[in-house]
Every structure is written in structure tokens, then in C-alpha cells.
Amino acid sequence: MGQKVLIENERVKVMEVTIPPGGKLPKHTHPAYVAYPMNPAKAKITFPDGSTRIIELEKGKAVYSEGATHEVENIGSTELFNLEIEIKS
Q: What pTM was computed for the model?
């Protein structure tokens, strides 16, 4: 479980992110990034203000974010397995 850096340079950081069912990544911050789910998963995202959002990730359907600080909990029955590409300024 966790984040494994696959490549990082001055422009991008590419990570493999895995969270088993019931697992949680602690609070962390991303700059703008693209997440590419490698399998379907369901997650609860918790933001610093305590608000939450439930997301359903679809295999192969990329998602873009302007950046965020959050924690991620896998509330589904399958492993959350994403490739994440952080875009550095």
C-alpha cells in the first residue's frame, strides 16, 4: 500500500498508487495532476476542512485535478490502483 515513484524530473512526477480495501493514505498534497485508474475502485476523499466526497473510479478513465490536499480511503471491495502524474510548474 502506498505511493511508489516511478519517475521524477523537473517537469513531472509519475507514481503508482495502491490502496487495499479498507486502507487509507494519510493527508497529503498534490500540485495539478492526472490520475489514471488501472481498475475500478470506490474511495472517500476527506479534505482539510472535514468535508468529504465519494468517488467511483472507472478503469481507464483519466481524471484531472488542479491540485489538492486530502486523505484517501478505499471504501470499495477492490484494490485502488492508479497511475498519478503530477505536473510541476
A: 0.89
